[in-house]
Amino acid sequence: MSMIRxxxxxxxxxxxxxxxxxxxxxxxxxxxxxxxxxxxxxxLTVDEVISEPDADYTGHTGYxxxxxxxxxxxxxxxxxxYLCGPNAMYDFCKPELEKLGVPGRRVRIEANGPPPAPxxxxxxxQGLETSKEVTVTVRGRGQFKMPVGEPLLNAMERNGxxxxxxxxxxxxxxxxxxVLSGDVFNPPQSHLRSSDRTFGWTHACVxxxxxxIEILI
Length: 217
Ligand code: FES
Description:
Blueprint lengths: L1 H9 L5 E7 L8 H10 L3 E7 L9 E2 L4 H8 L7 E3 L3 H13 L7 E3 L23 E6 L3 E6 L4 H7 L17 E6 L2 E2 L8 H6 L1 E3 L4 E2 L3 E4 L1
Parallel strand pairs: 1-2, 2-3, 4-5, 6-12
Antiparallel strand pairs: 6-7, 8-10, 8-12, 9-11
The protein binds FE2/S2 (inorganic) cluster.
């Protein structure tokens, strides 16, 4: 809705197609306003896709699959895709866009912050309690203790160490710190480049220290 309002207010020369996937029409936020805006503005198309429709619903039904996206948007070439929703929706939609050949640089994802329960994610060491304390050494500057279940950036800031940041969701890479020793858990949402992994950089906003570590800020 903010993007639509911005296009209207600043008269931006853009077309905007909102494909709103939802379980039922009752779950659609701004439903009436969106319908009204779509009637008033040629640049705006709004499509609802409902997975569990009421008997009297006559619109699109199903999920935001590759087939549905293609049917509604037509040719995907040159279009930017912006995903906004829960992480489960991103996990579903990203591969669907890949099936359509949409390159990763044309997909943007609304940031949802660090994972609230990293111990539930694939790759977390089995049996490791999130309350376990580890020591972080910041080379040339000092040390602090933190529980392994806390995002590294939060713990750094609590202890007076700042790193540039913006998305705090693993997307933008502004908060990169170099891990000189020790083990760090990088969740799937951490968009690390392969060169980051090779040379030991991590996105501190979504990284979790699994052992005593030494970092370079
Ligand atoms: S602040 Fe953007 S990746 Fe950490």
